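[Q] Does anyone have a clean structure-token version of this?
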Amino acid sequence: MNIDGQAWRTIGLEEGGRSVWVIDQTQLPHRFTTRSISSADEAAEAIATMVVRGAPLIGVTGAYGLMLALQVDPSDASLAAAFDQLNATRPTAVNLRWALERVRAKVAPLPLEQRAEAAQAEAGAIADEDVAMCEAIGDHGLAIFQELAAARPAERQLEPFNVLTHCNAGWLATVDWGTALAPIYKAHRAGLNIHVWVDETRPRNQGASLTAYELGREGVPHTVIVDNAGGHLMQLGQVDAVIVGTDRTTRTGDVCNKIGTYLKALAAHDNGVPFYVALPASTIDWSIADGVAGIPIEARSALEVTHLQGRAPDGAITTVQLTPDGSPGFNPAFDVTPARLVTALITERGVAPATEEGLKALYAEPLAAQ
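[A] Here you go.
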């Protein structure tokens, strides 16, 4: 995607293949910088501290992390230790384990001297496939947006098509294009008069910091709103559709996304606003049926609730305390939206109802192969 006219991915091999560069998302939106990752330890740290974030990008970073570990020590013990270290960094997003297992399965049968090179090839393949899947999600979502926009009453045809998002599910959360934002980018490039309501997404403000940054660089009209404004806008008829990503989707269509997504789904349901979830196949956890009971919810530091990072008037990036001394914070990073509140799932293979039957109809081929 575009940053000041230059095309970027979020991750890539550095020259020689002995390290990986990533966009440092902790510095956005005020500073655009990249960071070099040269070991599995550094890859794990980048995932844990959200230098990289977003379920698909976490998976690709983990895959490259295994590559880096095998470059130093290709033994079975090294592979197992790096796998466990990387897998423990973010428990909710299933893409991480999926990518790690895919690389492990590729290299485990090989002689030690071939493992690092094979891991590099597999990590690169996962990255390229992620780009293709996200672009396909964009194409399928574009068709939905065009249909919804055309179905509006004649007196609203000249108004912008208003989409509400929560968290960041754009190209910064993937390798390129994004999941929930891919249809928005496709719509904007196709000439649809689209406008995006961007939830700030407390406590880390991925919407205000990252989604707004992306949309601005692409020239997509958008407005940042506080998290609790979404329902109000829906009541006023100012939201035509809601679209979000997901870090883990059960086989029955429950979706786990950034905290606050469930409340948006409830508001959308109450106001008759379609609620879509965009996801690649790597985000589906076929082993879980009940999202509330089965998906582990990451609890992050309370400091993310009690403190806030931003740019001071002098340009310095600083952290300030929001709460009184002694007031504790609680910070569940995700919540689960039941399938009954999801209008449809938008995948790289097409659009499906949020049901087990709907997902299996799209993914019958890999299911049969398992």
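[Q] Thanks! Anything notable?
[A] Residues 112-150 form the longest helix (39 residues).
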